[in-house]
Amino acid sequence: MKQDTIVEVKDLCVNFYTNQRCNKALREVSFSIRKARTLCIVGESGCGKSVTANSIMQLLPDLGRIESGTITYHGEDETVHIEKLPRNGRKMRSLRGEHIAMIFQDPMTALNPVFSVGYQIEEMIREHLELSHSRSSELAVKLLKDMGVPLPEQRVREYPHQYSGGMRQRAMIAMAMACAPKVLIADEPTTALDVTIQAQIFELMLALKEEKQMAILLITHDMGVVAELADDVAVMYMGNIVESGTAEQVMSSPSHPYTRALLDSIPVLGRGKAQNLEPIRGTTPDPYNRPAGCQFEPRCDYATELCRRQMPTEESVNASDREEKPHMVRCFNYKELTHV
Amino acid sequence: MSDTREILMKVEDLKTYFPVRKGVFKRTAGYVKALDGVDLEIYRGETLGIVGESGCGKTTLGKSVLRLHTPNGGKVHYAFPDGMRNILELKGSELDEARRRLQIVFQDPYSSLNPSFTIFGSFDDPLRKFGVKSKKDRQKIVEKLLSDVNLPGDYMTRYPNEFSGGQRQRIGIARALSVDPELIVCDEAVSALDVSIQAQVLKLLRRLQSERNLTYLFITHDLSVVEYVADRIAVMYLGKVVELADTEELFRRTLHPYTQALLSAIPIADITKRKKRIPLQGDVPSPVNPPSGCTFHPRCAFATEKCRELSPQLETFTFEGREHLVRCHYALDVTSRTQVSQ
User: Assuming Cys at both sites, which of A141, B182, B241, B303 could form a disulfide with B307, CB separation 3.0 to 4.6 Å?
Assistant: First the structure.
């Protein structure tokens, strides 16, 4: 295990049980979130990216259960197995917010409309830090100021509906930052925002990563965001991480047919009308009626008989190299792609 | 494109205001100036992209030219076979005729199809309205339309809930095509779709355009999508067009500071192209009470006293024979700035 790993997820399986049916939402997902690095989990809707984030925070709905695998938090002086903690136990509650913080997609529904923004930030501070009332309200103002909210002394008394979308997301980040967490989990933090506001939020997150040496897990569906922000990338499809590695490895030499197809299907700014978009044929399978073997097999151009029967295991693309961060892929035929 | 371009629609000084009502008596307290003097020309067979942030009036523009909103002022001239006429003044059967020529594809494929109608039911009314009397004929037409958008014809007996988002969006496109329109307003037609599905719909739209010589008014917030589909792009900010040019020209020679900031804010899915962002300060101002002078000045890094006081006009420049319209006092100075910042 490397020194700078803060959260390590290993072979995580999560199932959802509804109407006597079982949806294997996550299957053997492994990754690590490292200090001062951004890990992007990218995939289409329904691929399990948010389930992954919610499992780390133990925020799965009652129907969801961590079936097997481990989630380990490496704190400064302790190592915690998150998957073994009771959901609402004292330990989990102290981890949540103080050590691992999360921001959500839609800041309007994540903030409580009947409390002022300042109150909601102070709530976080009072829960985790032993500060007096006046000190905690000072800290709330400072946090808003650090996040670039203008007139924080006044804004701290206002309610979420008086904030614009970008400001609400800043308030959410201020709340997440209140206890200086080691890890920030951001679940599509800018999907509801305009691009210019998105750029502002990204600048802020980058600055926090640099200054506070924070580890960031960023969940997104936008390959553009990955290319801009990620240090490491994990591509998910139907509950599996199909490819992972550094942003450079995955974006410049995609080795899984799905990653490649995904990159070929999006229009890229600057390439104009001449670019040839290749849609991925078919649609994502029904999660209750999954293909037997590789999940991508019905839509894959490289599929063989073996893919139909069996799910491939994770392999390193360059088996020989012993790099810091290996480029992993879950495909039987990745060599065909990489050698073309 | 040659000089023989035929103008299909000419929008002149279009204004759409929505009243803001307050108090017990619903007194009108002010107006949201959703469109505040928009001038545009749409040529036959082209795709005009409209981009901008939320609240800039792009959807209102799309709906106003179709008369789904009633504009407060301005003109929308449309080239009918017997000459240009103002759509906003049409009545009765003339308006019906205009509606046949102008169709719309909505953003959300989940709410744009009536869940209690079969797919055929959704197509039936417009077809009957526009003169297909026999049910057999209508079924035949629907079958043909569905196959045009790569769906099996027998899907017409199914209900919308049986389809995925991408399929519904294709049904929405087929429905717009059912009355054989000339101009289709695509209002964020691919924004709600997953990326792999988005590509299918974009390719379909392109194919249909070349097969049927359609004209699109393509409204989106996604500049990478608009670059792929549009021949010309109009950038909107607070109810006004701030820049309008050929797609290539706009991306190569961006003149308005807002367009520059917008372009620099787009995350590009190409790792070799990490670039410097031009961060914009603050949010889009409220359209109820827009700033004085140039409405972009509070967020513009290059604003001067003149921008604060004087509202710039949409000026036409010509570079290498191509028109480039910009609404900025310092449009030409911006060119030199761009080269420095890149």
Answer: B303
In a mutational test of the B interface, the residue from A194, A218, A235, A327 whose CB has the highest number of chain B CBs within 10 Å is A194
Map out the domains of chain B as residue ranges. 259-342
d(CA A232, CA A243): 11
Residue A30 lies in a domain: no
Of all residues in chain A, the one with the smallest CA distance to B229 is A273
- Decide if A169 is inside a domain: yes
Which helix H or strand E contains B147, and what residues bound it?
Answer: helix B135-148
Using a CB-CB cut-off of 8 Å, the residues of chain B touching A228 are: 267-268, 274
Q: B255 vs A272, B5, B219, B326, CA distance in Å?
A: 18, 25, 21, 7
Quote the domain boundaries for residue A312: 252-339
Q: Does A235 reside within a domain? A: no
Q: Could you tell me if A166 lies within 8 Å of chain B, comparing CB atoms?
A: yes
Characterize the bridge pairing of strands B232-237 and B47-51. parallel
Question: In the A/B pair of chains, how many CB contacts fall below 8 A?
Answer: 131
- For residue A280, tell me if it sits in a domain: yes
pLDDT tens by residue, chain A, 340 residues: 556 899 999 999 999 988 888 888 999 999 999 999 999 999 988 889 999 999 999 999 888 889 999 999 998 888 999 999 998 899 999 899 899 999 988 888 889 999 999 999 999 998 898 889 999 999 999 999 888 888 899 999 999 988 888 889 889 999 998 888 999 999 988 887 888 888 888 888 888 899 989 999 999 998 889 988 999 999 999 999 999 999 988 998 899 999 999 998 888 887 877 888 888 888 888 888 888 899 999 999 888 999 999 999 888 887 655 556 688 999 998 888 776 5
Count structural domains, chain A: 2
Residues in B touching A279 (Cβ below 8 Å) = 196-197, 199-200, 203
Partners of B73 in the beta sheet? B15
**Integer angstrom CA distances of residue B48 from A10, B41, B229:** 50, 9, 9
B277 and A252 within 8 Å at the Cβ level: the answer is no
Candidates B325, B295, B330, B312; CA nearest to B56 is B295
Quote the minimal CA–CA distance from A15 to chain B in Å. 24
